[in-house]
Amino acid sequence: MDRFFQRLAKGLALIGSLALLFSMGVTLVSTAAKNARRGLDGLDSSFGKELPSHTWHWVHSILGEEELVALLIGFALLSTMPLAQLTRSHIQVDLFKPVLPMWLNKLVEFATNALFSALLFGVLWYQWLRVVKRTRGDKPGFWDHALNLDLAAMIMRLKPGNTQILNIPKAWILMGAECLVAVALLISLYCTLRSLQKLFYRKVGHD
Amino acid sequence: MIEFLNAAFTDVQLGFLGFVTLIMLVAIRIPLSLSLFAVGLIGLWLVDGKPNGATTRLADEIFGTFTRYSFTIIPLFILMGEFALRGGLGRALFDAASLAMGRRPGGGAMAAIGASAGFGAVCGSSLATASTIGKVALPELRRLGYSGGFATGTLAAGGTLGILIPPSLLLVIYSILAEQNIAKLFAAALIPGIFAAASYMVVIWFLAKMGQVTSGEDAKNLPLSLSEKRAVYARIWPVILIFILMFGGLYSGWFSPTTAASIGASGTGIVVWLQGRMNWEQLSESLVSALTTSVMILMIIAGANIFNSFLASAGIPDFFATVVSESATSPIMIIVGILLIYLLLGMIMDSLAMIFLTVPIFLPIVIGLDFGFSTVEEGLIWFGILVLMAAEIGLITPPVGLNLFVINSLSKDVPINATYKGVLPFIIVDLFRLGILVAFPGIALWIVRALYSFVS
Fold first, then answer.
1. Are A75 and B291 within 8 A, CB to CB?
2. Residue B313 at interface with chain A, using a CB cutoff of 8 Å
3. B29 touches chain A (CB under 8 A)
4. ipTM
5. pLDDT along chain B (456 residues), means of 10
6. pTM for this entry
7. Is residue B397 helix, strand or coil?
8. Which of A27, A87, A102 to probe by mutation at the B interface, max B CB count within 10 Å?
9. CB–CB of B264/B76 below 8 Å?
């Protein structure tokens, strides 16, 4: 079980790493193109009327670069959240750890994992309300359509709205985020069970 | 329960109650991000009297923070440090610094400081700088005959240059909390950072001259030919080039901060790759490690945003600002008081946690004070540098100076008390430097004023 979650979390983090690398590439290419255009425009003006100003129109920064980079890095970070959860990569102040009894430290660890699970569940739930329209009366909702595999009706239930420049439907982006938060929640629940087990048993396999 | 608390306490009282609860949660080892989320969300619910505000923030905050363009520099600067860490740039910098300073009294220790300053220029983390240069320089310093405590103390102090010399992760965090221009903050940190490195070297030179530091062996490792010297210096040119490219582009207006961070990270990665110091495994480790650290920091930022909204709704910053404005205390004494709080907190708290918890409270106070600056922005930049320096001192102040533990863990034979003693001269010079910066804000603001013109 532990190995499965380790692989899942690391695999997602590696996919996130690729997104981070890609975002760097996007920034670099866009900046190079933007500054090349500046230079070419300068060159253009030095030639006077011999070269029309639209000669270099195809050299420009990537349209929606900032939005794309922000989304890619957001994806990278959300993909790494399960690994951060599994490896307990959170800042803790260990001021009293050495003086507190072992059982209390284990209790705190359990409480931490349980609270994280509750937080992630809250995020998952309330973020979902941003993805789908509220169902009124006894009309079929998103999940009813999903059970009937009615993709078109499912899409109709999604909240409208696109990103400003790239025009990507926000609901699709949030659905992607929901999937990654769901994995983080799953791993957090596993960590909660593991810490509960540690609380009651002295020796538990993998830490 | 919610109704009872809402009726029993005023908003300001709830704010104080929330702050005390947060400190207690953090003290019993609940992660800072989780504590901020928990107290912030419940606090918002209590102050509003209904859960709507809290649930809206819960739905938006993590996704919003992770996808905010201005925060994208955080993973990129961390990645740059990871590449530098794994790519052996620390060794190259230490070798070059040894060559430049090794013959002077205390030259070995001065070289460690020089290497830390150089590493700080490509890495924004104090702990990473301390551990990287520590691993390279500690055996060398011991071989040269430096006492264990002085060697560890020097390296712990040198590590703080990682956050003082731009790019600095703590300054990035401050810029987010204070909504200040990161490029101006980096410019403002440059002179205090160089000043810090120089003052550490003066301390070492002075102690060596006084015979307090064993350094007789310093010159023995340096009989290199001219071509060998060139080879050593050639290994550090990429660090200088990346630094110049990054900040040159940033201040000439060619790059945005995110672009500068992207260029820094990719440039460092390419350099260590070309030097054959990085394979696929190290590349993936660097990327995953940078992302994991970033998740940790951005979760704290998201939690801090919610917690700060709670404090603002409860009227805590306004309360403090009113108390301070009604008191007859001079602005400079208030700054001294705030810095004393930072120095005390630094003894027991992680610098990142300290900044997240205190800056939102102190900021309205500082904004309300008149220091004679032409703009509020100048005051906030100056305050940011003071906070950074106070946090830096916290990293080497016992009992919870993290740098001390990082370096001490590298040298098992040196007792922690010896490290405490070894770092003491550096803490004294740090306090002196902080005093100078409080008295002469122009030291921090000179470059900023030269690069940008402030308009009242």
1. no
2. no
3. yes
4. 0.88
5. 76 90 85 91 90 87 90 90 84 86 83 90 81 86 86 92 86 89 91 93 90 60 71 82 87 85 91 86 92 90 89 86 81 90 81 82 86 87 93 84 81 84 93 93 88 61
6. 0.85
7. coil
8. A27
9. yes
